[in-house]
């Protein structure tokens, strides 16, 4: 049973899951409709390959359907399918790059220093300078240029909006590891985006 | 007084509002006094904001259809 503090949306979802468990394909179809875009985006970010992302999308929902009885309801359904999707996507990534043996630690900067090079103020709402499509392209290219360990943590935390704990669980990382990768990912993205978002006509320090 | 390096290492936690009040005060003070760190803090905050506001695009109908037909097949296989 759903806890008392659940929002109506969560109660609806709990009902849908119950129905899907009972073999109601339409109820499961509704759950797919709700989350397929996010799962596909997540899969694209991790695998960086459209075909693989499509496979991950299918595998995720088929596995979720198959193992629906194992969904306990003590985590959110969304977090549960994200965990499945992340596992599938990492497997694809490893397979595709097996010659290079990609690991979740590849590209990890073990140095203590966090480097900041670009210091220039941005506009108040810098994203408004671009169309939705342009903005999407800029943001996606920037994330995709991060090394896998940073990219996966950033996407789960700041794009898919999972908590630190949920991200740690999905990636089987410690909480400090999630936090330190997130900091580095955010700072790297800040650097990459500065060239698109810095205040026009301003050079560094011009705000002072 | 925090150094710039200490400021940076706490920045992410600060933006997620996970720092305790004492540390938060130290970070606020540093940002107010160090223009470079203020910019890094402000632009990192905006970085997070633009990504959080990013919509997941509609997936191509063909991909949705293939997903649904794969599911139907699975259900049919289970029933048979």
Provide a count of the helices of chain A: 8
Distance between the first and last residues' Cα of chain A: 57 Å
Count every helix of chain B, treating DSSP H or I runs of 4 or more residues as helices. 4
Q: Can you give the helix content of chain B as a percent range? A: over 70%
Question: Cα-atom Rg of chain A, whole angstroms?
Answer: 19 Å
CATH class of the largest domain in chain A: Mainly Alpha
Describe the global form of chain B: elongated
Stretches with pLDDT under 50, minimum 5 residues of chain A:
none
Mean pLDDT of chain B: 92
What does this protein look like?
Chain A has 208 residues and is an all-alpha fold. Chain A folds into two domains: 8-100, Rna Polymerase Sigma Factor, Chain: A (Orthogonal Bundle), CATH 1.10.1740.10; 103-208, Arc Repressor Mutant, subunit A (Orthogonal Bundle), CATH 1.10.10.10. Chain A is 62% helix and 0% strand. Chain A has eight helices and no strands. The mean pLDDT of chain A is 85. With 80 residues, chain B is mainly α. Chain B has four helices and no strands. In chain B, helix 1 packs across helix 2 (21-33). The radius of gyration of chain B is 23 Å and the shape is elongated. Classes of the chains: A mainly alpha (208), B mainly alpha (80). Chains A and B meet through helix 2, helix 3, helix 5, helix 6 and helix 8 of A and helix 1, helix 3 and helix 4 of B.
What keywords describe this structure?
A: 208 residues, mainly alpha, Rna Polymerase Sigma Factor, Chain: A, Arc Repressor Mutant, subunit A, 8 helices, 62% helix, 0% strand, B: 80 residues, 4 helices, 78% helix
